[in-house]
Amino acid sequence: MKKLKLFIVTAAISLTMSMTAFAGQWVQDDIGWWYQNDNGTYPINGLKKIDMYWYYFGDTGYMKTGWYQFANGWFGFSDSGSCLNPGNYMGEPSGAPYKGWVSFSGSYEATLNGIANGSVVHYNGHYWTDPELYQEEIVYEHDVAPAELENRFSLADMDF
User: Fold this and answer.
1) Is residue 55 part of a domain?
2) What is the pTM of this model?
3) Same domain for 89 and 29
4) Going by DSSP bridges, is the β-strand pair 33-36/46-50 parallel, antiparallel, or unpaired?
5) Alpha-carbon separation of residue 54 from 42, 77, 86, 91 (angstroms)
6) Does some domain include residue 29?
7) Both ends of the chain: CA-CA distance in Å?
8) What CATH number should be reported for the domain holding residue 56?
9) Which residue(s) pair with 128 in the sheet?
10) Which residues constitute the domain of residue 35?
């Protein structure tokens, strides 16, 4: 009898303490993709972080791809909808100074040269460049020989 009472009390507590977990979900129709929040609403006219990525939703609630200009710069969105821009210290994406420009992470010398010739700019806490204007050539130390090697295969060149 004690076991039955314990079972009933445990079941009652479990039922009263349990909650249904709702999560938003992606939905696709003939027009495109949109995101339904757990309360049935959907984001419109702005950025929304879903899982670990930022997405842009237009005035009808559909996910956008491509480049868009906002008050704080240009934002690029991949074919999957995720934002291509780097994040700021708060984890939000930072706007680029111009359409198509990407975050620049070259060497110190390349950064200074890029700033001097205008192919690199500092904007919203990041360095940015037009990918068509900048190509840094990287030469590794082991790729450069100090002098031409002589008698490299001296034993192979000997006549016997």
Assistant:
1) yes
2) 0.68
3) yes
4) unpaired
5) 15, 9, 11, 10
6) yes
7) 103
8) 2.10.270.10
9) 103, 121
10) 24-95
Structure tokens at 108: 């110190």
Burial state string for 81-103 with b = 16 or more CB within 10 A and e = fewer than 16: bbbebbeeeeeebbbbeeeebbe
Q: Is 12 within the bounds of a domain?
A: no
Structure tokens at 92: 């939000």
Tell me the pLDDT tens digit for each residue of 70-99: 999 999 999 999 999 999 888 899 999 999
Q: How many distinct structural domains can be found in the chain?
A: 2
Place of tokens 């460049």: 129
Structure tokens at 21: 């977990």
| Helix (H), strand (E), coil (C) string for the chain | CHHHHHHHHHHHHHHHHCCCCCCCEEEECCCCEEEECCCCCCCCCEEEEECCEEEEECCCCEECCEEEEECCEEEEECCCCCECCCECCCCCECCECCCCCEECCCCHHHHHHHHHHCCEEEECCEEEECCCCCCCCCCCHHHCCCCCCCCCCHHHHCCC
What backbone phi and psi angles, to 5 degrees, belong to 11?
A: -65, -40
Residue at 4 is within a domain: no
* pLDDT tens per residue, range 4-57: 565 565 655 655 554 444 578 999 999 999 999 999 999 999 999 999 999 999
